[in-house]
Structure to design on (87 residues):
């Protein structure tokens, strides 16, 4: 992953990205049991993070196929955020 972040030109943001991903995952797990608001915020935050990852990969001219996992995870998290926001 270090090499990928260097390739993206974002090596100084590698730890921050990892912490945000961990916080998002913990927020989802905690939100399932305790707070719908936390669940919505966590899934929305991860959707934004994945959108930024997708844009970054397109910006460095990766193929759509190589960029598609970030896009798919963004859609899944966006769906969950909207679903839990409505309930």
């Amino acid at each position: 992953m270090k090499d990928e972040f260097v390739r993206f030109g974002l090596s100084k943001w590698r730890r921050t990205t990892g912490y945000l991903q961990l916080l998002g995952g913990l927020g989802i797990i905690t939100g399932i049991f305790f707070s719908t608001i936390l669940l919505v915020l966590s899934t929305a935050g991860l959707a934004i993070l994945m959108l930024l990852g997708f844009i970054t990969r397109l910006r460095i001219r990766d193929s759509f196929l190589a960029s598609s996992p970030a896009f798919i995870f963004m859609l899944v998290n966006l769906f969950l955020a909207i679903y839990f926001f409505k309930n």
